[in-house]
Design goal:
mainly alpha
Length: about 100
């Protein structure tokens, strides 16, 4: 159940990130077309790349938060693991009950 919630949250974050990247590209393109000198075009390109990097950093941060939430809200008891431990040697059955 928690992994499904985490996947849905990650998908929503990815959709938001793609929208932010698309908006950054559109704004960068508009700034480039309005720029008159090559320096203004370079600055517009750098702002576009910066906005894209920020959107990707936000995505990774939100995914890390989702993973942490899923781990915190797990139903494991303290000191117990999700998998049974392996025992070495003979099985621990009472005598006569094999």
């Amino acid at each position: 159940m928690h992994s499904a919630k985490e996947k849905i949250s990650d998908m929503a974050s990815t959709a938001k990130e793609k929208l932010n990247i698309g908006s950054a590209k559109a704004q960068g393109h508009a700034e480039k077309t309005m720029a008159r000198t090559s320096e203004e075009k370079k600055m517009a390109h750098e702002r576009e790349k910066s906005k894209e990097a920020q959107a990707k950093a936000n995505l990774h941060e939100s995914k890390a938060e989702h993973a942490a939430d899923a781990q915190v809200h797990g139903h494991h008891l303290p000191g117990h693991t999700a998998y049974p431990s392996r025992t070495t040697g003979a099985a621990h059955y009472p005598p006569g009950q094999i």
